[in-house]
Amino acid sequence: MRHIKAPFTLQKQAMSLMTVFAEAVELAMAQPRIDLRPPGHIVLDPRDRGGRYAVWVRYAADGKPNRTYVGAEGSEQHLAAMAALDELKRLKERAKTLRKLGFEAVEHDAALVLGEMCNVGIFTGGGVLIGTRAFGSILNHLGYKATPFLSTQDVDIARLKAIKLATPMPQGGYAKMLEQTGLRFLPVVGLERPPGPSTSYKVVGRDLKVDLLMPAATTAQPFVTRRVPELGAHATTLPFLDYLIAESWSTVVIGRDHLIPVQCPQPARYCLHKLVVAALRSGLENPKIEKDTIQAGILAAILTEEDSASIEEAAAVLTPRMAKQAKKTLPRLEKVLAGEYPAALELIQRLVLGRASA
């Protein structure tokens, strides 16, 4: 059989780099909240009656400076502000270091959105980051870099059950919460007539889009709109999404200035779910089919080497219906893996075919 090169290359991060990443994760998880603004700087200004007072100068999303009085020079309030500034600078510097070391990161606007979601408790309360943003964080956590990295401009948030928020949604619900980032959002209007409630929001003048998703009931039609009362919003229902988000783990998204704790799908479930999703997509030339298959192949290659038991466990709870869909993607997966990762291909084939015949 002619050797066929995989459409991706994998590089395992050195142990020293993973130590840096682990320290960053610990630092991120210790944050009481995500401060969305850049750290800024503290300056000392003269006072009318002598002495000096401290002012913290920070910049909003629109670039306008905001000056906050933080006490007289040397006061307890001033020293506390200096300590807080040092911590924000430390987080920013650690995020910069991780990006330079080759860890996957998100652009600043996406980090702001995820940070605000973190602040209201979406991730600690049951929400899960899915899609390519989650895929990048999963690779970071597994200690691998994949090239090329097939990215999208969407932030996809899924919920299985009602999310238990840490703080109440602002008046105006989910849409208003997104605006608290300082970015301007508009609801994305669907093609149906009359248009139903929006489940997506797009940043004005930029490519970033935020989608809200939830599983479709087994007996219900998928791709319909359902209300999410705790968020004051609506979501699109997707088939088999419950399998993907039933098990998640805590990791971190790397931004320009931020390290943001999130929940992402368990990697083996992400891998197998991508095989299912690829089979459900319409159009033989749909580029998302290739992206799904390659992401599944990347995780299969990594997990076969690092944690094959997790793939066995994830496959054991595939329904026969899901396995039959995944089976349709196996010929595509063979083209991705057969040349360089035959053991990964053999494992996935055996597990999927075994469940499909159950």
Short summary:
By secondary structure, the protein is an alpha+beta fold.
What does this structure look like?
The chain has helices at residues 15-29, 76-100, 108-120, 131-142, 173-179, 241-245, 267-280, 287-306, 308-316, 320-337, 342-356, and strands spanning 9-12, 41-46, 52-59, 65-72, 127-130, 144-147, 154-159, 185-187, 200-203, 209-215, 225-228, 233-238, 248-254, 259-265. With 358 residues, it is α+β, with helices and mostly antiparallel strands. Strands 5, 7, 8, 9, 10, 11 and 12 form a 7-stranded mixed sheet that branches. Strands 2-3-4 form a 3-stranded antiparallel sheet, with helices on one face. The longest helix has 25 residues, at 76-100. The mean pLDDT is 92.
Helix content: 40-55%
Q: Which stretches are low in confidence, meaning pLDDT under 50 for 5 or more residues running?
A: none
**Roughly what is the average pLDDT, rounded to an integer?**
92
- What structural class results from the helix and strand content? alpha+beta
Rounded to an integer, what's the Rg over CA atoms?
23 Å
Question: What percent of residues are in strands?
Answer: 15-25%
Q: How many H/I helices? A: 11
Largest sheet: 7 strands, mixed
Give the overall shape, derived from the CA principal axes.
globular
Q: How many β strands by DSSP?
A: 14
Order of helices and strands: EHEEEHHEHEEHEEEEEHEEHHHHH
User: How widely separated are the two ends?
Assistant: 31 Å
SSE layout and pairing:
Blueprint: E1 9-12, H1 15-29, E2 41-46, E3 52-59, E4 65-72, H2 76-100, H3 108-120, E5 127-130, H4 131-142, E6 144-147, E7 154-159, H5 173-179, E8 185-187, E9 200-203, E10 209-215, E11 225-228, E12 233-238, H6 241-245, E13 248-254, E14 259-265, H7 267-280, H8 287-306, H9 308-316, H10 320-337, H11 342-356
Parallel strand pairs: 7-10, 10-12
Antiparallel strand pairs: 1-6, 2-3, 3-4, 5-7, 8-9, 9-10, 11-12, 13-14
